[in-house]
Amino acid sequence: MPLWTLRGLGQGKATTGWPKDPAAHGQQGTIGMPSVGADRCTEDCHRCADACPTQAITLDTRGHLETLDYGRCVNCQLCVETCPAGTLQPGSEWAFGVRDRVDLQWSLDPDPRPPEVRLASHIERSFRGSLHVRHVDAGSCNGCESELQALNNPFYNLHRLGIFFTASPRAADLLLVTGTVTTGMHEPLLAAWEAMPEPKRVLACGTCAVSGGVCGGTETSGHGLEGVLPVDVWLPGCPPNPAAIIEALLMLLERKPQRIHGGRVHER
Amino acid sequence: MSVRLQMLVLDAAALESRVEQLLADGGRMQMAYAWRSAPDAIEVRYLAAPAAGQPFEVWCVRPVDDALPSLATRAPLLGWYEREMQDLHGLSFRGHPEPHPLVIDRSNGMPRAPLVLPEAVDPQAQWLGFGPVRADVMESGQFLFLYIGEAIVHYVPRLFLKHRGMEARFEGLSPTHGCVLAERVSGVGSVAHALAYCQAVEHAAGCEVPRRARQWRVLVAELERIYNHLHYFGALADATTLKVGQAEGRLLEERAKQLAGQLTGQRFMRNVLCPGGLRREMVVPPGWPEHLLALRKEVEGYLAQLERTTSYLDRLITTGVLPREVAFDQGATGPIERASGLDRDLRRDHPYAAYDELTVPVPLAESGDAHARAKVRAAELLASFDLLEILLPRLATGPCRVACEAPPGSFGLGWAETPRGSLYYAVHVGPDGALARVKVKSPSFSNWRAFPFTVHQTNMMDYAINEASFGLTIAGCDR
User: Fold this and answer.
1) Do A238 and B184 count as a contact with CB atoms less than 8 A apart?
2) With an 8 Å Cβ cutoff, are B160 and A184 in contact?
3) Which of A47, B291, B377, B398 has the smallest number of CB atoms closer than 10 Å to its CB?
4) A32-94 and A126-265: identical CATH topology
5) Which of B83, B85, B72 is nearest to B45 (CA)?
6) What does the radius of gyration of chain A's CA atoms come to, in whole angstroms?
7) Would you call A150 and B250 a contact, using CB atoms and an 8 Å cutoff?
8) Prediction ipTM score
């Protein structure tokens, strides 16, 4: 045992400086959600909508890209690979956490509604010190769990941010749900929610929990959390990487601003 | 390519003697599934692996009045497949030793996993339920222990609460979209699922994948094994309360996933494979092989340190013993069966992708305990680094994709040796060219069937370590 302690000490610090150091998120080389480039559709090609396995794309009467719902996107890149005009491009953005589901919807004519401004004073006092999270797998592929488990590895070291996973829902502030909400997990999910004390929040983690993704729509699979629980933060991604999950958690705590509005990145 | 499989049409009455003959000749059943070739015509297909060196056999059998004789008393591993067909396809199997539902029970309004508990005869014995929502970040599954004090008398895992109906979800999709879905059956097996699926479609289409694509498939499949096995050691160190060992295992896993992200653009290496080869031209980033080599050095040091840690070894040796014959009968696969002395590995026995140009070592152990399972995985982990080091300088140039169109009415079978064992995809293409039926036989479906045999008559203290030593996923099993 002492040998392990020495070994660990000998290896020095493994934890990333992110989010303070903006480049050290550990996701270098990964491809984000598709982005809509400056070039617009020139032909009536339908290819992106046909290629999308989750019907996340709709076209206008001319057959041009009209809306893109990131809440349905599983980041399979098929639309990007098939687009002849460069309208859809490989994106660099992977952190898509939003408070309002409609903010995941990109459309050609964006809603004139300005990005919502929330003041730090809105933070509920009860969540200011630390956040305790109860995770429930409501029918995932285990990809989200793999990334959630990674949050506690020494690289991301979630504890340093005052965020902890807790065993009992009675000690939890946040219910973090993955998966499509299968018929088998519907009741246990609601039981965990019921057992949590007020105030309590819900984070839909991964495209399955947001909309059912590519796995929804069978007799037993469900369609995600819409209409099941009141969701406070929607985080699509298939799966969202650990840094994207941390961004969403910090956004929930209002320690980071929401960056995505109307399916577009708005830096402040 | 040599003959991959033989198709045989059998009479229902000939099934039992055929299975007995297969077992007597040193073969083993692999899976069974039902499919409707027409609205009123159902067929059951059995996949058999005769003795080493021979091609697979697919037995096509027409049930009589939606019934077949159960083969579960002769080949117990078929018990779960028969029950699944009972639940999902309305077939019945005469003489089944455990005829109750397995995957779905529709009797209580909502279709969901049944709960079937044997009756406790000892009045002192009590049931302890655990899950489906378990401590920490875990997949959902409910575990029931019939116990007296610390002793577990009987153990029942209630799985399939996460049953998403993934096989049904494939139906009607185009073969291209099918690959996106296959990558999401079991997230930590994304590459293996895509690979087995693509190979099934390619078999149906009769297309030959270019060498460069086959080599890249091995590259990403072995990298998937590396991050999964590293995850396994982190979890095993956690179960044996070796905190620094856990942290180091998790960190090494993270490094492997970051390397995967740099190589393919996605940490689970999704969006790389497609029927016919690779989705796009792939390039090894500069400096990447050196990072892999550096990771290997750290992994070697880590594994050696684990093997020198007596508190860890004490808790693994003799824990959760899976005897060789139980492993064989119940269908254990992958590192689990190899740790119980069964010498099988699809990469060597039925080579696919570019494994025919590599020598795949198949590490074995005999004792069948948690330590044997860890030793087999440690040796496999290092062997995967070896394979990558041989493959990287050898990557061929040339095309990475050919046209692949599976004709209407065609059938294909694909397989892969995942980090957890054998995975099969059977693909039937409908008259419109869309997927008509896809069967997924995941390794965890096989290993969950075998696992309870190592829990009955053991004790509570060993359970978590034993479960970690199996390295199971629930998503793959439940589908």
Assistant:
1) yes
2) yes
3) B398
4) no
5) B85
6) 19
7) yes
8) 0.93
What six digits make up the tokens of B415?
């397989």
Contact B305 A4 (CB under 8 A): yes
Query: Residues B184-227: pLDDT tens digits?
Result: 999 999 999 999 999 999 999 999 999 999 999 999 999 999 99
Q: Which of A103-112, A156-165, A209-218, B220-229 has the lowest mean pLDDT?
A: A103-112
Query: Quick one: pLDDT at residue B1?
Result: 43
Under the banding of pLDDT at 50, 70 and 90, the label for residue A268 is low
Q: How many residues does chain B have?
A: 479
Contact between chains at B111 and A137 (C-beta distance less than 8 A): no
Contacts of B104 in chain A (CB under 8 A): 220
For A28, the 3-state DSSP assignment is coil
CATH architecture of the domain with range A32-94: 2-Layer Sandwich (3.30)
* Integer angstrom CA distances of residue A171 from A24, A151, B335: 32, 20, 38
Enumerate residues 416 to 475 of chain B having a beta carbon within 8 A of any beta carbon in chain A: 473-475
Which residues on adjacent β-strands are paired with residue B279? none
Q: Angle at Cα B461 formed by Cα B458 and Cα B464, nearest 5°?
A: 95
Q: Please compute the mean of the pLDDT values over residues B395-400 and round it to a whole number.
A: 92
Q: Which residues contact A198 (CB under 8 A, 6 or more apart)?
A: none
Residue B3, pLDDT above cutoff 70: no
Report pLDDT for B106: 85
Q: What class is the A126-265 domain? A: alpha beta
**pTM for the structure as a whole:** 0.95
What is the set of domains in chain B, with CATH numbers? 5-94 (3.30.460.80), 126-158 (no CATH), 172-443 (1.10.645.10)
Chain B residues with CB inside 8 Å of A186's CB?
110
CA distance B278 to chain A (A): 12
Residue A63 region by backbone torsions, left for phi larger than 0, else alpha for psi between -120 and 50, else beta? left
What totals of helices (H) and strands (E) does chain B contain, helices first?
Answer: 16, 14
**CA-only gyration radius of chain B, Å:** 22
The residue count for chain A: 268
The amino acid at A24: A
* Residue of A153, A151, A59, A222 whose CA lies nearest to B111: A222
